Fold this protein.
Amino acid sequence: MSKITEKIISLIKEIPEGTPSEEIDEMMNFLYVKKQVLEGLEDIKQGRTYSLEEMKQITEKWKSE
C-alpha cells in the first residue's frame, strides 16, 4: 500500500463516530483543494505555465466562442 493511501486511511479512521456529513464534505473539499494546489506547484516547477500574454489570448478566444 502506498504512503498516501496509508495516510488517507489513517485520517479516515481518526474521524470521530457521528461526525456530520457536512463536516466530512468540508474535509474532502479541503483535501481536493490541497491536491490541486500541490499539482499546480509541481506544474510551476516543471515549467508548465502560461505567460500573462498567453493567458490573455486564451481568454479572448474563450470569449469569442
User: Anything to note?
Assistant: The mean pLDDT is 94. The two ends are 46 Å apart (CA to CA).
